[in-house]
């Protein structure tokens, strides 16, 4: 448990002369991950030939080396008492002292996914969008934890608010626009060249072409390069500032950071399953504790039982178990007395 912040309570019914609340950093959680068999036939891939794990003894975890996920990932692991120790920031390999036999490798998010597929990494933390885009439905990739509660965004189609799109508010309406023909298809700019076309195809948009771009996609419609874009949206500010809008039925994927594992590694590489358990227990313990607090307050009373009774008379104060009540001793007129009791709930 670590102290994150202290608040002072003002609660007349328990008349505290002081109280503090400490956010709980972890609760006890036990996980069981099991893996049955490899669902897909073994393929020949770099570092992982015929489904056999490559020759190494260490378990490898890939983390984002850059971008917005990099710092948040290290912060989350630190909150789970899994501090990543990097000898120097230019080195791409690091360790987590609490887990022996684990190597941490810093890679671009898309390379974390590619290297999981190739067998050069066993575990990784990236956004679900990156797993889906670069994993392309590969059955070797298993989402071990699907909600690490940061990196929230959605992959969405956006179109201009103006011109021929002014009254278009749904994917259906977009698909039915007479403008799109084999000669003049809907032009979509996206960095998601797997998920974008797949979604359009699955939703019956036939006359569509895609162009790829790495950044500032929101400028493409105004520049006349594209009619629509498929990109990540979080607050919606970038779309708004560029006169674009999302449409009904146009969300391709809801994404946040996930822990992803290679199925073959879980089954075949010694230590991967145990390390995955250990990480899941720590992650879940931390995530479940978010928003829970331990409150310590000193209450006046004639006995511990009387104080406990008053606390328990308010179900919202009882907590999961407890309260713990202990006398607070002070010296008055040369005599030791306990007029107050410390409650912990
Ligand atoms: N605006 C956003 N808000 C929240 N999370 C986001 C946002 N944009 C992206 N993400 C999440 O963060 C991940 C990394 O995005 P980021 O833009 O930091 O890196 P990148 O796209 O790999 O790098 P770059 O954009 O420089 O090519 C994305 O895959 C997605 O899961
Ligand atoms: O809805 P918002 O909160 O405005 O966020 C959306 C923007 O965030 C991402 O871009 P990023 O900041 O990663 O820049 P990039 O285009 O260089 O990837 C994404 O590609 C959008 O452009
Ligand atoms: Mg980006």
UniProtKB/TrEMBL annotation:
GO MF annotation: an example: ATP phosphoribosyltransferase activity
InterPro entries linked to this entry: ATP_PRibTrfase_cat, ATP_PRibTrfase_CS, ATP_PRibTrfase_HisG
Q: Where are the transmembrane segments?
A: none
Instruction: For this UniProt record, give its keywords in alphabetical order, as a comma-separated list.
Output: Amino-acid biosynthesis, Glycosyltransferase, Histidine biosynthesis, Transferase
The enzyme's E.C. designation: 2.4.2.17
Protein known as: ATP phosphoribosyltransferase
Q: Which GO terms describe its cellular component?
A: cytoplasm
Q: In which pathway does it act?
A: Amino-acid biosynthesis; L-histidine biosynthesis; L-histidine from 5-phospho-alpha-D-ribose 1-diphosphate: step 1/9
Question: What's one GO BP annotation on this UniProt entry?
Answer: L-histidine biosynthetic process
Quote the catalytic activity from the record: 1-(5-phospho-beta-D-ribosyl)-ATP + diphosphate = 5-phospho-alpha-D-ribose 1-diphosphate + ATP
* Domain ATP phosphoribosyltransferase catalytic stretches: 108-283
- What Pfam families has UniProt attached to this entry? HisG
